[in-house]
Amino acid sequence: MAFRFQPAVHPDADTTRLWLVAATLYFVAAAATIHLTSDGRDIATIWPANAILLALLLADEKPRWLTVLSAGFVGNVVANYITRGTVSAPLLYSVANLVEVAIAARLIGRSCPSGGLLLTTSGTMRFIVAAGLIAPCVSGVIGATTAFLVSGEPIDRSFLVWLLSDGLGLVVFTPVFLAIFRGEFIDCFRSKTWAMRGETLALLGLTAMISYAVFFVAERPLLFVLFPPIMLVTFRLGRLGTKAAVVIVALIGGVATADAHGPIAMLAVGPAAQAHLFQAFIGVLLLTLLPIAAEVTERARLTAALAEHDKEMMEKAITDPLTGLFNRAGFDQMVARAFHRRDDAPPVSLIAIDLDHFKTINDRWGHQAGDLALGHLTRLLNAEVRANDVIGRLGGDEFMVLLPGSDLAQANLVAQRIAAAVRQWPLAIDETNVTMLSLSIGVATAAPGEAFADLARRADAALYAAKAAGRNAIRLAS
């Protein structure tokens, strides 16, 4: 389920919903983690629950600090009390966790783009330092002191366990929860073709199968086998695929290690040593893959931006900036396509148009009025021609319309519609001045094998014949 934080019709109901979601998710994650990775007295060896609160704060356009942090506090106290059976420790651990989430949110939120945490290499490194080092170091002092005062655990060992468990929990799970709450996984899946969806599921399924084989089947510690499929996911699916793949490995490996199965259990003796080694492995995996995923994402973003820039520059090169129509270069490109291999092709016609007395409009009301007249004519042309017809402004008040698949009679009908529209819709110069426009139009149809240059000359000749007849006229080329 994706939680998209947008302005709600009933803000109070939305805030209550957010509080319940945060408290419930935090309680479930915290209770399960303590039960699986702690003996009830010491610090849990992995802690993804804080990532839920951090992701909720980062996903909200205007973070609701009190709502999210109070929900986390309640969920944390209840989970700790149920699993540890004391009151003092849950309160102090909750304070430490909220301090950690608040620091991380402040450090990351200022530079967290709307597209996610792993868009650039520099952004990824800032996220790792803030969430994986600074925030858990500060909270670790409170957490380790609590473990010493309540359970007599050594401060140095407790601080190291806290730093590793909370740091890795934030770094591994925050990007995933943030993508879920923002709906990125759903949007990404919907934007893909069925073939791309199949590839995504196949690659993540392959990662899960290899992870299961490494942690539950293999009789030797083959951790290196996990890198090729995850690297493949990174390069094929990008940062969202990397997030999903790392979580798959962390979940499968975490369950196996907690149950003393797999390569971690082969390499280390005792639950604490195994937990620390597994954390170190996930840390190496993250430090290897997250910067690569960020680089791949950044290169893809730059490639897309470059393609968009090239497209914009191409459009500017072939488009008239005033009217948005093709300029001479763009019109020539469309002509070349229409006249390519014209043997046995449908007829092609051309309409040449001049705006009558255009200079008089400029002289009387100024060049701004002339621009208004050209824009007015452009709208009328777009309304009267067909979808596959091509309009070009070749300069000044000179326009041409290329009509693929039209004979002389059909082209004449289009010209008649254009002239009628100009007569029907006068031009409003300003609030007090209105003027009627008129057009001189020449129409010609290409003969078999005739080049466009010859067709254009005949259309222009018909246009000049219309002008010679007194303007506001249509003439057909012989």
UniProtKB/TrEMBL annotation:
Annotated localization: Cell membrane
InterPro entries assigned to the protein according to its UniProt record, in alphabetical order: Diguanylate_Cyclase, GGDEF_dom, MASE1, Nucleotide_cyclase, Rev_trsase/Diguanyl_cyclase
One example of a Gene Ontology biological process annotation: cell adhesion involved in single-species biofilm formation
A cellular-component GO term for this protein: plasma membrane
Entry's Gene Ontology molecular function annotations: diguanylate cyclase activity
EC number: 2.7.7.65
Signal peptide bounds: none
Tree of life domain: Bacteria
Claim: Membrane is one of the keywords in the record: yes
Keywords of the record: Cell membrane, Membrane, Transmembrane, Transmembrane helix
The keyword Membrane is assigned to this record: yes
Domain GGDEF: 346-478
Bilayer-crossing regions: 18-36, 128-150, 159-181, 201-223, 244-269, 275-294
UniProt topology in membrane: Multi-pass membrane protein
Enzyme class, first EC level, given as a word: transferase
Alphabetized NCBIfam families for the sequence: GGDEF
Full protein name: diguanylate cyclase
High-level lineage: Bacteria, Pseudomonadati, Pseudomonadota, Alphaproteobacteria, Sphingomonadales
